[in-house]
Amino acid sequence: MSRMKFHVKKGDEVEVISGNFKGSSGKILEVLPSKQRVLVEGVRIIKKHLRKSEDNPQGKIAEREGPIHISNVKLVDREKKAEKKSKTKPKKEAEKKAA
Asked: What is the 3-state secondary structure of the chain?
């Protein structure tokens, strides 16, 4: 079995670039590689009706995120992450030279 490699992973900050939720952004909560979909925090909120049970004696309408195809999201702040990595090293070297 081969693992699929995607341009985003859990915890990344992404922006939706196409579809009904275009322009919205959030953090990735989960990646579903078998379906090539991701769950993005606060995007595509769906309502699920739950029947009465011991946990929910009155029943409940639960809101949760729905999956979005992975091709419809793009990574945000990739440049900022690269800048942080490159900026930290020169600062440390400059501090060592000054000391």
From this structure: CCCCCCCCCCCCEEEECCCCCCCCEEEEEEEECCCCEEEECCCCEEEEEECCCCCCCCCEEEEEECEEEHHHEEECCHHHHHHHHHHHHHHHHHHHHHC
Confidence at 75, pLDDT banded by 50, 70, 90: very high
pTM of the model: 0.70
Q: Token digits for 42?
A: 């606060």
Token pair of 75, please?
Answer: 């990574």
Which domains are present in the chain? 13-98 (2.30.30.30)
Q: CB neighbours (10 Å) of residue 16?
A: 19
CA distance 27 to 1: 29
Spatial separation of the C-alpha atoms in residues 57 and 86, rounded to whole Å: 55
